[in-house]
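Shipment paperwork, digital attachment
Item: protein structure file
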Amino acid sequence: MRKRYLRGDQVYLRALEPEDLDFIYEVENEPDHWAMTDFTVPYSRFSIRQYLRDNRNDLFADKQLRLVIALKGKDTPIGIADLFNYQPLHAHAEVGILVRQEYRGMGYAGEALGLLCDYAFGFLALHQLVAYVLVDNHDSRELFCANEFVSRGTLREWWRMDGEFKDVVVYQRLRDWDKTKDRSRAIWL
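Attachment content:
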C-alpha cells in the first residue's frame, strides 16, 4: 500500500491558492517574523498576488516549497510549512514552520512538521533537513527535538533583532537517523 503524504489526524498540508492572499499578507507582514527571514520591508498585496500567480510550488524548480497548514475538515489556514534553500546536489533543504498565535499549544505544529518531514524524506527523497532556531525560543526548540531533529551547535550572534544580535541553534535531521546511536545528541545543547 502506498504511503499517504501531507495528511494527519488534525491538520493537512496543501498548496497555496489565490484565496490565501489575505492569510499570506497577514503572515508575511508580521514584524515578529521578520528577524528570522531576510525581510526588510512589508510585502504589498500586489507582490503577494504575483507570487501566488507565478509560484509553481515545485521544490525542484523553485528551490522552495511553501505549503499551507490547514485544519482538517475546515480548510482553515493556520500556518505555513516551508522547505527552502534547497540544494539538489546535496539533497538537503532548510525547514521553516509558523503557526498563528491562536493555534499554538494544540499539537498542530508538531503534526505539521512531522508531515513535512515524511514528505521531504519519503516522497522528495531528501537526505537531510536543517532548521535555525533562536536560543530563547523554547517552544520551537522542543518542537524540533520532538520531531527527531538534533542540535548540532550554536551560532553566536547570528540574527539581529531589535538592535541586538541573538544566538541561534542549528538543528539537523537525517533521513536515516539512527536514534540509538545518537540519543545523547537529541537533547538541547
